[in-house]
Design brief:
Blueprint lengths: L6 H5 L3 H18 L2 E4 L5 H12 L3 E4 L1 E2 L1 H4 L2 H7 L12 H13 L5 E2 L28 H9 L12 H35 L1
Parallel strand pairs: 1-2, 3-4
Helix pairs in contact: 2-3
Length: 196
């Protein structure tokens, strides 16, 4: 038995376990001179540690997957195993710290976590009975279904921070413009009611 709800995927893989793994591999880089790269870092601290070890003479880099910039533990609890990945998604505060590190340029790059599972392996009631990893859209049929579901753009591998920032900034400008139009519409509607 035990706890098998989605949030327990995160609780059984706390941040300290990832940090300890980063430290171990960074120490190996420092000792051997080998270049080590941390794949799928879900913690801003991983990028901080890579920088500390680089300053000490090690060749260390790290990357993050897009989900660690967009999804939180709350999403896993709400959506379920479709968001299950390793390392798990983290708190909203950690996502903010990840965006900070992206903005500072400490991430080598951003990747996707293309780990396809049949739907029946991502929808089981007990979180530990589900596969880990997020499915990306790679073939034409998937992209067409995505567009039909409302997507208007796709990110392709590798994801470069500059491209991601440009896309996010563009979407924020569009949202700001849309919000202004809604305000204007509201004012015009109020004015029309007053004229009536």
């Amino acid at each position: 038995a035990g706890n098998t709800s989605p949030i327990w995927h995160c609780r059984t893989r706390p941040p300290i376990t990832e940090t300890m793994a980063d430290l171990e591999i960074f120490e190996m880089a420092l000792e051997t001179g080998a270049h080590v790269h941390i794949a799928h870092s879900s913690l801003a601290r991983g990028f901080d540690l890579a920088a500390i070890y680089r300053e000490a003479g090690a060749r260390t880099t790290a990357e993050a997957c897009i989900q660690y910039l967009c999804l939180t533990e709350d999403d896993l609890a709400r959506i379920g195993a479709k968001v299950k990945c390793n390392p798990p998604v983290r708190s909203a505060a950690e996502v903010e710290r990840m965006w900070d590190r992206l903005g500072r340029g400490t991430m080598a790059y951003i990747s996707t976590d293309h780990a396809p599972w049949p739907l029946d392996r991502k929808t089981r009631p007990q979180i530990f009975d589900n596969g880990s990893g997020l499915t990306g859209l790679t073939d034409r049929e998937d992209k067409i279904r995505g567009i039909e579901a409302g997507a208007d753009d796709f990110l392709n591998k590798p994801i470069f921070p500059e491209e991601l920032f440009a896309r996010v900034n563009s979407l924020l400008k569009l949202k700001e413009f849309t919000d202004e139009l809604e305000n204007v519409e509201s004012v015009l509607f109020s004015f029309a009611l007053g004229v009536e």
